[in-house]
Amino acid sequence: MYQETNFDGLVGPTHNYAGLSFGNYASMRSRAAVSNPQAAALQGLAKMRVVAGFGVCQAVLPPLARPALGTLRRLGFTGTRAQVIEKACRVAPELLIACYSASSMWSANAATTTPSLDAEDGRVHFTPANLVTNFHRSLEAAETAALWQAIFANPEHFTHHPPLPANLVLSDEGAANHTRLASRHGLPGIHLFVHGRTGFAPLTEGHFPRRQTLEAGEVVARMHALSLERVVHARQNPAAIEAGAFHNDVIATGNERVFLYHQLAFADPSQVSKRLAQAYAGVSEDAFCLREITGFSLGDAVRSYFFNSQLLTLPDGAMLLLAPEECRAVPPVAEVIGALIADPECPINQVQFVNLRESMRNGGGPACLRNRVVLSDVERAGLSGRVLFDQGLDAALTSWIKKRYRIALSWDDLRDPQFPGEIETALDELTQILQLGSIYPFQQTGEWA
Fold this sequence. Notes:
Layout lengths: L1 E8 L15 H5 L7 H17 L3 E5 L7 H6 L6 H11 L1 H7 L11 E4 L9 E5 L6 H4 L2 H11 L6 E3 L17 E4 L8 E6 L18 H10 L7 E5 L2 H5 L9 E4 L2 E5 L6 H13 L7 E5 L4 H7 L5 E4 L5 E6 L6 H12 L5 E7 L2 H5 L8 E7 H5 L9 H14 L14 H15 L7 H4 L5
Parallel strand pairs: 1-2, 4-5, 7-8, 10-11, 13-14
Antiparallel strand pairs: 1-15, 3-4, 6-7, 9-10, 12-13
Helix pairs in contact: 2-15, 4-5, 15-16
């Protein structure tokens, strides 16, 4: 028996609005606003509660340890922890802010995964994203790899690949630019890899960077032992990137036999839909529900994050759209949602709205917060730690967040020399709750990564 498990990133204690993601309009607009880390973490937890309440398998990923003090030391800031923070704040505040980023919460960017039933060697494959386009996210790759290896530790079932070489030719943004489609999660599927450019093309074509390369998708597909007949590579429309759709999951979404995409999502949408249909026909005789969305603009797509909704298959086979509250505030988007649910040929038959305001203001919706991993019962039983979501874990995490998270965080708070100590205490407790042992560098060596 195979099920899709949604691994959501817990929002970290350093959640702040630094506006670090150039090309992400929400992140850029919120720059320098005061954040509420406690509210952000509780909102993310509430979303997990909703998903689990519908009977969908849910799991949690702990945040990475921030600030990245080890990086600051490698950049020449010396002395005690307090001295490193003070010097960085005075000399290079942007570096300090980047090293405080809580962006690992958006676990869709953490890695690309392939289920064992698709890989020719019959194992689950993981490749952490190198995220080289943004400095603050590029710091995550090695830590993410270690974290995923700790949770998916059984070598009999799981194969871990290193992140792709850290250069712009192989720029990899993880599952945010990858979609698996199949008639059922437990049956063979096809894989769509979306890129903004080829590796040797300029990083920008307009104002904003094109973060994913074709070559990165090709390498991941090869390493994951995917059959070429089941892989489709597609180029994102530059106009979508310029409009703020920096990842494919902001302009298209899919689940099982449903794929929804904005009419301006791809450079050649007719060719992409044709190739997807052909690849899907090679693995299933079931009807393939391809929907080109024409009812609202690119601006509406980015304002509402409709395509960053989660499409979930419920235990009875029904399909749910888990959408951000913002979708209700944009009338054309709300109309499209109503039309999809009313369409008898579309498997989506219900919608649930969730409040993720703190994450949304930083440019991440429901789908950004989770990484989808299809696992067999045996593979799921081989997970390490207490990461599968249930009422007991929910209660423990809720209590922990309310006890350890600040309710307001501004740029000035990041220079507080006491803050890293607060975070260390919080993450120490979290690893005990999740029963993952010493997964953080400061627990293993006394030093921060």
